[in-house]
Amino acid sequence: MSESAAKDTPEQAQFREHCRQWLADNHPGEPPVRLPQSPLEIMTTEQLDYLQAWQKAAYDAGLVGCDYPEEVGGGGRNDCQRVANAEMIRARTPFLPNVIGLGMAAPTVFYHGQEALKQRLLPRLFSGEDIWCQGFSEPGAGSDLASVQTFAEKKGDKWVINGHKVWTSLAHFAEWMILLLRTDKSHKYDGLSYFVVPIRSALGKGVTVRPLIKITGETGFNEVIFEDLEVDDSFRLDELGKGWQVAMTTLAHERGAGEKVTPRSGGMKSRSTHSSTSSSLIELARQCQRDGRPASEDALLRDRIIRQVIREEGLAQNQRRARVAALQDHPARLPLQNKLLSSEIAQDTGAIAMEVAGASASLYLGDDNAPAGGQWPMAYMNSYGMTIAAGTSEVQRNILGERVLGLAKSK
Fold first, then answer.
1. CATH topology for 3-96+119-127?
2. 190, 182 in Cβ contact below 8 A?
3. Could you give the CA distance from residue 213 to residue 73 in angstroms, rounded to a whole number?
4. What angle do CA 146, 147, 149 make, to 5 degrees?
5. pLDDT greater than 80 at residue 253
6. What's the pLDDT at 2?
7. Among 39, 28, 23, 40, residue whose Cα is nearest residue 90
8. pLDDT digit string (tens) for 117-151?
9. In this structure, is the dihedral angle defined by the CA atoms of residues 173, 176, 177 and 178, taken in order, positive or negative?
């Protein structure tokens, strides 16, 4: 029995047994198509169809949206989502594709949306039938989120939206977008409002989605252009001018610091098809040769790899500590710290893997001679997106310094 299972409440223990039995009976097995390393790199309808079917099955079995109320499509359980997440990881199931919907849109809609909107949107979000994307970053407003200029003008009971969003993951498949925009140009923060917008049905009728090709050759990112898109006022979350406060709910969950009354992810736990952990790095070092010997015998590489092992263990222990309220000196410190460190550890692990593979690191997917099927170069290149997403590492350090440690603002 795992340590987490040993601490289960009776409800959690019963639910864990349900999860294990259902996953044993319904594991989808090897996918019929090559899957990307995370939901943010889904490129083809074949990949999406397979993953959506898996999320729908998991939702129907009660493994997604566990802790949300039943009246909005949830399971009505108490702190059971983490149990489902842990069991899906243990069973090595595919990831759930609706990562932005589960991790960011669901808690934001739940906390700030009207009841009718929650009941309309959340069930199909949990099931994965409606994919969601996030409309925050703009060409002139990335980390400076309060400077967004996409504008909505009130006309009768409608809002007319014009503007340009960028780095919009999954927009090419999304039915809905969570959208931060400006409704008053005279105030930086109080002039922001927050909407949920149906973009799939508006393609060619006020919405244009253009894929952005990454260095990996994948097209998970997009830019989205709004030209006189009309939406109902009922799609606004919270009060007019409260967009910044609503956005903080989204960012808190994106960065792992969301309230515990609802699950952070609703089942989001993103499992890569290629693990970039130090255990995989050790295996790579045993397989690759350096000067006629396994790279794992190189003393300098061994030292760097073991440092990664120590960093990962420290991160795991911090995550354990985050579950103990009495050990919290500040509610945001450990979640923000974990987001910062996990993305940087993954990037550093990928960089070491490139050194371990040597010249073979230039071989890519589909090359029979590529170590680990060419997944390591892909993981290394994709890691740069994660040190930017949800605020760059520099932004995370500023938040930790100013809001947690009480340091002076950086100039």
1. Butyryl-Coa Dehydrogenase, subunit A; domain 1 (1.10.540)
2. no
3. 36
4. 120
5. no
6. 61
7. 23
8. 999 999 999 999 999 999 999 998 877 889 999 99
9. negative
Q: Indicate where the chain has its CATH 2.40.110.10 domain(s).
A: 133-254
**Per the residue annotation, which of 138, 218, 223, 254 is the catalytic one?**
254
Topology, domain 278-404: Butyryl-CoA Dehydrogenase, subunit A; domain 3 (1.20.140)
Fold of 133-254: Butyryl-CoA Dehydrogenase, subunit A; domain 2 (2.40.110)
pTM, to two decimals: 0.85
Give residue 337's pLDDT.
87
Kindly tell me the burial class for residue 70, based on how many C-beta atoms sit within 10 Å of its own C-beta (0-12, 13-18, 19 or more).
exposed
Between residues 168 and 257, the one the model is more confident about: 168
Condensed to tens digits (0 to 9), the pLDDT of residues 311-344 reads 999 998 988 887 787 877 887 788 788 889 999 9
| Cβ-contact 153, 182 below 8 angstroms | no
The full DSSP string for 181-209 is EES-TT-SSTTEEEEEEE-GGGBTTTEEE
Q: How far is CA 287 from CA 44, 125, 283, 359, in A?
A: 32, 42, 6, 14
pLDDT at 180 over 50: yes
User: Which three-class secondary structure state does DSSP give residue 221?
Assistant: strand
Our answer to whether residue 71 is catalytic in this structure is: no
> Which segments of the chain belong to CATH 1.10.540?
3-96+119-127
Cβ-contact 70, 273 below 8 angstroms: no
* DSSP 8-state secondary structure symbol assigned to residue 402: I
Q: 225 — phi, psi (to 5°)? A: -115, 130
Q: Report the range of poorest mean pLDDT among 150-159, 240-249, 285-294, 382-391.
A: 382-391
Q: Which residues of 176-197 are buried (b: 16+ CB within 10 A; e: fewer)?
A: bbbbbbbbeeeeeeebbbbbbb
